[in-house]
Hints:
Bound molecules: zinc ion
Radius of gyration: 23 Å
Strand content: 5-15%
Strand order of the largest sheet: 12-11-10-9-8-7-4-3-13
Number of strands: 13
Distance between the termini: 66 Å
Number of helices: 15
Helix content: 40-55%
Order of helices and strands: HEEEHEEHEHHEHEHEHEHEHHEEHHHH
Largest sheet: 9 strands, parallel
Structural class: alpha/beta
CATH superfamily: Metal-dependent hydrolases
Oligomer: single chain
Amino acid sequence: MNVQFHKWNLQIARIVVICLALILLSIPVIAQSDSGGTQSNDYLFNDSHFHLTNYVQEGIDIHDFLTIMGNKVGRVALFGIPLQQQWSYRVDADRGPTYYLNSDAPLYYYSFTDASIAMAYKSLSKEEQARFDPMITGFNPTDMYAADHIRRVLRTFPGVFTGIGEFTIHKEFVSAKISGEVASLQDQALDRLIDFASEVGLVILIHNDVDVPFAKPGATPAYASQMKALLKRHPKATIIWAHFGVGRIIRPVKEQGAIVEDIIKDPDLKNVYFDISWDEVAKYIVATPESTKNAAEMANRYPDRFIFGTDEVAPANQETYLKVYNQYEPFWKLLSPEASEKVRKGNYVRIFDEARRKVRSWEETHLK
Ligand SMILES: [Zn+2]
C-alpha cells in the first residue's frame, strides 16, 4: 500500500509541476522597472514628447489616447501646451484661431494646463498611470517665480509629475508672439527654474532653436553658445534638448553635428540628451541617404544620448500618431540593434524611471 500510495503522490507532484511550468510559459515577458513602470518588450517605442492638448487647450480624452497607443506605444511623456493662442475679436472676428500661425493675435502663458493634465492622469487606473510621465509646463520662464509655480503644482498634485516641459525659450514664429518679456537663455529666472527642477530630480525638456530664421549662410548659429553655456551652468540637471535645436525653417546648421557631438563628448554634460521628435525634424534626417547615414552613425556611436518622441498634438487616430515613427523608417534600418532599442525605448525607461524615483522621494521629504 505504501509503495503504491508513494507512487501516486509522485505522479500527482509531477503533474502539478508540469501544469505550473505551462502556466509560467504562457505569461508574456513583462519587465518590471523598479519605479513601478511596466514595460512589455513588444511595443514599438516609448514617446518622450507628446501634447495631449493644442494651442487653444483643446485635445483628446486620455482614455481615447490609451486606445490610440494600443500595443504600439509603451510609455508616454505627457503634457499640454503652456501657451494659449488668444482669440481676439478685434483681430479675427468670428474666426477663432487654433494654431499660432493662424493669427497675429498674441500668445500668453496658460498655467491651468498643469491642472488639466494632472486630472486627466488621476482619472486613470494605477496600471494605466504607470504608462504615463506627466510633465509640468504652465510657467513663464522669464519669471523668477516660475520655480515656485513648479513647487506649488507638486504640492497640489503629489505623486503625479515626473518632469518639466516641453517649455520654450527661442522658437521660430512663437517666441516673438508671446505677451510680456521675451524668454532668454541668459535669464536668471531660467537658472532658478532649472536649479529647482534639478534639486527635485525632474526631467527637463526644453525647446530652444539653435539659430534664428533666415540666418545669413555661414553665420555663427545665434543661440548655440548661449545654449551650451546654460547646460554648463547646470551639470547636475537631466536635460533633454527637444528636436536637438532645429525646427520648421530652422534648418540643421552645417555645424549641427559638431554642436551635438561637442556636447555629448563634454564630461560635464553627461546628463544632456537630444530628442528627435517632430515630423519637421524627421524630414531633415531622412531627407537624403547621406543625411540618414550621418544621423544613424551618430546614434550608433552614442546610443545612450538620443531619445525618440513624436511631438504629436492630440492625434485623432493611431495612424496619425505613428506617422513620425514611420517617417523614420530609413533611419531605424541603419541603427545597430542596441542603438535602435535604446533610442526607441531603453533611454526613455532609464531617464524617466530615475526621475520618478527622485521626484517621489523629494515629495516624501518635502511635502509631507
Ligand atoms: Zn513639442
